[in-house]
């Protein structure tokens, strides 16, 4: 399980968020209402994880919440949810009315809700560890341990102590309401270092194929959250174990071993880099496979154009480093080492073959120390060629590329040498092509 947060900025954000949410709960209680902290913020507080946002649950209706607070906005008043803005630039606090949910015919939201009691509200939540309440006002003056102050109707405290992710009530019913809960179970278990309750896991595996009915936007967002976490490789391993990887990635189930490349990435790795590592772990071996895989994952995870392009570039770049680097010319190696995808490709190489990465890094250092370095400014550009009397034509771009290759390889080092080489290259052109 992640340890307590020691980042001063994050800790300060936590303290501000808790204070603001407590004041909202206090105002509701002063007005005669029940008001508790609810859900993930209570879970994380108990685990010492310092949440930076706090949700308040109350018996006050949305209209009443809007009446009591001057700055509010509706995000789901039909479902009893109102955002309260404590200060003009402060983070909004979600205030939700205790409710019981009706049927989920769209596998996402209940068709109708009934404003209800804390007990009923706890019963409609996904997992026991997310169905806990805490009175923040009473907690300020209480000397009892925090665990003893928790309001628990579903056994969430005992599951927290045991390190278990368990569905509230019947796991089949909870999954039928919203199949995305299968991915949430995996994410919580990986992030917290918990195990998934056996009955909950069986229900997830039995209904894994039904995840395909969930919107691709929601699946993609859940995978982004998994990949942003330190324990992303554990989450992916769980996806495979529970047969969720096929509907998530819209590809056949993988029998690959543990995702070692993914597990060796740094905490701040980008989403495309994480996907690239996962692709290698799942057995991507040929450059010819890259375009197809990237397009499949673009659709499956709703990748942005930028994410798609970054994923394709780093996978193709990694293949160059692994298979073609040794046969490249000096100019090709310098161009490669200067490419935008190169640092991420080196991270992948380090995760898979540290010795090869170190060897290649030393070669790049030598290239950087050579005349002009890795990416010098071109001695000649198109405008300068025109100024020298060369007419643009079919070979113009080719000549510029050859000139820059010669500069990268140290065969030309001055403007005069570059001009002389340009004349020689144009003289090789066929009659009628660009010449001086």
List its traits.
436 residues; alpha+beta; seven-stranded mixed β-sheet; 8% strand; disordered C terminus
Description of the structure:
Helix 9 crosses helix 12 (232-241), helix 17 (305-323) crosses helix 19 (342-352) and helix 19 runs antiparallel to helix 20 (354-369). Helices cover 53% and strands 8% of the residues. It has helices spanning 8-30, 40-47, 62-68, 118-123, 136-141, 146-149, 156-162, 171-177, 181-192, 198-206, 216-227, 232-241, 245-249, 260-263, 271-281, 290-301, 305-323, 330-337, 342-352, 354-369, 382-387, 396-408, 415-427, and strands spanning 35-38, 56-58, 72-76, 81-84, 93-97, 99-101, 113-115, 132-134, 151-152, 164-165, 195-196. The chain has 23 helices and 11 strands. Residues 432-436 have low confidence and may be disordered. The protein is α+β, with helices and mostly antiparallel strands and 436 residues long. The termini are far apart. Strands 3-4-5-2-1-8-9 form a 7-stranded mixed beta sheet. The protein has a two-stranded antiparallel sheet with strand order 6-7.
């Amino acid at each position: 399980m992640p340890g307590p947060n020691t980042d001063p900025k994050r800790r300060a954000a936590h303290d501000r968020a808790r204070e603001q949410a407590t004041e909202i709960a206090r105002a509701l209680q002063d007005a005669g209402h029940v008001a508790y902290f609810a859900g993930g913020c209570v879970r994380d507080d108990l685990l010492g994880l310092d949440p930076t946002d706090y949700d308040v649950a109350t018996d006050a209706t949305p209209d009443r919440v809007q009446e009591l607070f001057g700055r509010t906005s509706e995000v789901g008043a039909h479902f009893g949810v109102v955002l309260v803005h404590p200060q003009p630039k402060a983070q909004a606090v979600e205030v939700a009315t205790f409710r019981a949910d009706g049927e989920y015919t769209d596998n996402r939201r209940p068709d109708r809700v009934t404003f209800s009691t804390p007990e009923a509200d706890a019963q409609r939540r996904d997992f026991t560890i997310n169905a806990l309440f805490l009175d923040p006002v009473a907690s300020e003056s209480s000397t009892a341990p925090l665990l003893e102050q928790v309001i628990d109707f579903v056994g969430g405290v005992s599951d927290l102590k045991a390190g278990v992710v368990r569905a509230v009530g019947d796991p089949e019913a909870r999954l039928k309401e919203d199949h995305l809960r299968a991915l949430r179970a995996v994410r919580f278990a990986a992030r917290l270092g918990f195990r998934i309750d056996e009955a909950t896991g069986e229900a997830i595996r039995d209904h894994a194929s039904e995840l395909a009915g969930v919107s691709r936007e929601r699946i993609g967002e859940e995978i982004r959250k998994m990949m942003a976490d330190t324990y992303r490789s554990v989450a992916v391993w769980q996806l495979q174990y529970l047969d969720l990887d096929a509907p998530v990635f819209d590809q056949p189930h993988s029998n690959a071993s543990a995702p070692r490349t993914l597990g060796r990435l740094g905490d701040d790795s980008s989403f495309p880099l994480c996907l690239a590592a996962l692709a290698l772990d799942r057995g991507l071996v040929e450059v010819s496979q890259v375009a197809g895989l990237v397009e499949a994952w673009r659709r499956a995870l709703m990748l942005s154009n930028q994410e798609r392009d970054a994923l394709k570039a780093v996978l193709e770049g990694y293949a160059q480093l692994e298979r073609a680097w040794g046969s490249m010319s000096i100019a090709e190696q310098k161009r490669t080492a200067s490419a935008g995808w190169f640092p991420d490709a080196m991270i992948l190489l380090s995760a898979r073959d540290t010795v090869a990465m170190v060897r290649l890094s030393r070669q790049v250092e030598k290239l950087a120390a050579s005349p002009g370095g890795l990416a010098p400014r071109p001695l000649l550009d198109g405008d300068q060629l025109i100024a020298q009397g060369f007419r643009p034509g079919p070979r113009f771009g080719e000549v510029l590329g050859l000139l820059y290759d010669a500069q990268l390889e140290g065969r030309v080092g001055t403007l005069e040498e570059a001009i002389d080489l340009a004349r020689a290259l144009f003289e090789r052109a066929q009659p009628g092509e660009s010449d001086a």
